[in-house]
Amino acid sequence: MRALTMARPSRRTDGHMTARSARRRFTLGGSALLFAACAPGGAPSFDFFGAYFPAWLPFAVLALMLALLTRLLLTLRDFDRRLPHPLWLSVAIGFIAAGLSWLLVYA
């Protein structure tokens, strides 16, 4: 008959961590850092006709408008034929501009 083996310990006896223990600590530490960034008052929001809207909403609309404006300018200047993936470029420019304006307003 085979002898029963004990479960493998999660910590080595020589003081070093195993990969599973290190992964657990990294996961717990990473999630703690994510939650540390949350403000105790919640996310920035504004009151609009009695309803609360997140503050990122106007910046999402701004990103969409800037992406459309960039696409229009690229089309009018005939750059859309020369650039690879002009639609993705327009969306990226819109989101970068909206993100930078978010940082200027709230940071």
Short structural summary:
With 107 residues, this protein is mainly α. Helices cover 56% and strands 7% of the residues.
Please characterize this protein's 3D structure.
The structure is a single chain. The chain has a domain at 45-106. Helix content is 56%, strand content 7%. The protein is built from 3 helices and 2 strands; from the N terminus they run H-E-E-H-H. The protein has helices at 19-36, 56-76, 86-106, and strands at 45-48, 51-54. A hairpin with a 2-residue loop joins strand 1 (45-48) and strand 2 (51-54). Helix 2 runs antiparallel to helix 3. The radius of gyration is 25 Å and the shape is flat.
The ordered H/E elements are HEEHH
Q: Give Rg in angstroms.
A: 25 Å
Helical run tally: 3
Distance between the termini: 68 Å
Largest sheet: 2 strands, antiparallel
